[in-house]
Amino acid sequence: MDWLERISEEYGRVVHPPLVLILCISGSLGHLVSIATLSSMMNPTNAFLISMSCSQLALCANFLYSTFFKWASDELCYPFFFSYYMTKTMHVSVTLSVLVHMAGVFHVVALSIIRYFSLSALANIHSSQQWFTFQKFRISLTIIFVSVAIIGIPLHFTSEVVMVEENEGCARRHPALRNATAFQLQFSSFPHLQTLNFWLFNLCSKIIPSVILCLMTFMILAKLKRIQQLSSRFTSVERDKQYQRTTKMILIIMFIFIIVELPQGLLAVAATVTELQLIVALGDFNEMITLLTSCVIFALFCLMNGKIRSAFKEAPCFRWLERWTKNAMKYRMGRTVARDKLLDYSITAEKTVDTSNNYAVL
After folding, report:
1. pTM tops 0.85
2. pLDDT, tens only, 272-296
3. Helices then strands (H, E): number in the chain?
4. Ramachandran angles phi, psi of 185, nearest 5°
5. I need a surface site. Which of 50, 151, 311, 334 has the fewest CB within 10 A?
């Protein structure tokens, strides 16, 4: 496994920081557009999607800060980032990353359950009211964030800020930093607490949600098939199409979370019962996949919602890019037309050349 550790170390040093920067910025901008657009089409389902986008936005922003902190402290070796207060902000950032990650996963699980009951109500020909209301929306958010807070309390104590004689990596590269007191983030000195939090995090945010999402996927597909069989009884065919389009988007989001979270949870469990430590070697890669998932969710919103696509196109940067492209095309077309006219004139002149003996043909 030494080769994997070397590749992972090189990836974390060279590729990971700029890639995370691109994903964080693009994901943050995308979710801001989604939140602004969905806010103009407020209903209980869109309100829930806004809450999920807020969780993904917080995830991107937090990853951006933690990546910047690691780069400034480990690569640039700025002594300012070795202070207690800056290290404490990193401690808070680590806890926040766990909380917003769990909040995002719990949103997807709740979204699958909500969609199933909404489809069940839709399949009832005697029902004309939507099942998911603003009251159920508030109850769902309360359950999600209370659960995240309860699970996140012990996770906060997994790591702690400790004082060391020097930052070994920076002191090795910069002799001036030798014997300079620094603060670092380390795992807690209580091994049982580490084991408890490790299992708590991987079970509650990866394995159990993935199993629930797998079950809900089959249940939603069965319910969707039932609705298609009863589609002729609907009073509004357009409503049926809208429900199916939204349901397909939710199913894709569920599937993405399953293929991302379940392997990570299984690898984490394997690391505790065997000597296979892939989850440690793939730490930076897992972070990148998590951020990529956040960007994919925004892309799905764009594919399934024309208003979000229109709002994204109306962003100032894209409007400027569109104007610049049009001006460049006009300039190139103008040069092409001028060149074609000159070519036509040359061909015409060549055809009208007098080839009599009175003139020399060059």
Report:
1. no
2. 777 766 776 677 788 888 888 877 8
3. 13, 2
4. -100, 125
5. 334
